[in-house]
Amino acid sequence: MIDGNDYTFEFLKMLIGDFGLMMYLEILIRVIIIMSYTILMIRWIGKRAIGNIGSADILLIIAMGSSVGDAMLYPSVPLAVALAVITLIAGFQKLYVFMGIEFRGIRKVTHPRVLKLVEKGKLLEGNFEIDEIDKNEVLMLLRQEGIRYLSEVEHAYYEQSGILSVFKYDNPIFEQSILPEDLDDLKVSN
């Protein structure tokens, strides 16, 4: 940090600093590598790690927050560098979304698929492994949706956002309680 007595205001230095053109090329390469790697890591961690926010959106918030904060707090970071980083992050995010929409093969990588976890009152445990979710988490998500009995559920889908969409029978038979005190008695079949 600069001592207050040694400080002199220089607008041009604040705006572009002492960096040459090669620094901006390096920033471009750094943004591409870090954004790509982070998206892969967020996808690897899974839906639960990001909650309702999409992986590109959470990355956008974190990366822009860091860039904006650094530019505001540290006089050694020229505004042009922060503006370049913010612009590249926004452009990367737009490209990420566009590629996911336009190209089916890329969408399979960039967007997690929706998984059916319950069908006709039965847990589809084979699908749990795809998103590394376990039975207890599925039962918790069902209880959070007000479900007390597995037999109430016609279909339940684990959405891209990590939320469970539940479709109940109109006139359910109340069997197979999923309340914590009844779980030892729950007989689950695939």
TrEMBL record:
Any matching Pfam family: DUF421
Keyword terms of this UniProt record: Cell membrane, Membrane, Transmembrane, Transmembrane helix
Location relative to the cell: Cell membrane
Parts of the chain that traverse the membrane: 21-42, 49-67, 79-98
YetF C-terminal domain mapped to chain residues: 103-171
Record InterPro entries: DUF421 (IPR007353), UPF0702_alpha/beta_dom_sf (IPR023090)
Topology in membrane: Multi-pass membrane protein
Keyword Cell membrane: yes
Gene3D superfamilies listed in its UniProt record: bsu07140 like domains (3.30.240.20)
Similarity-based family: Belongs to the UPF0702 family.
Name listed for the protein in its UniProt record: DUF421 domain-containing protein
Organism in which the protein naturally occurs: Gelidibacter pelagius
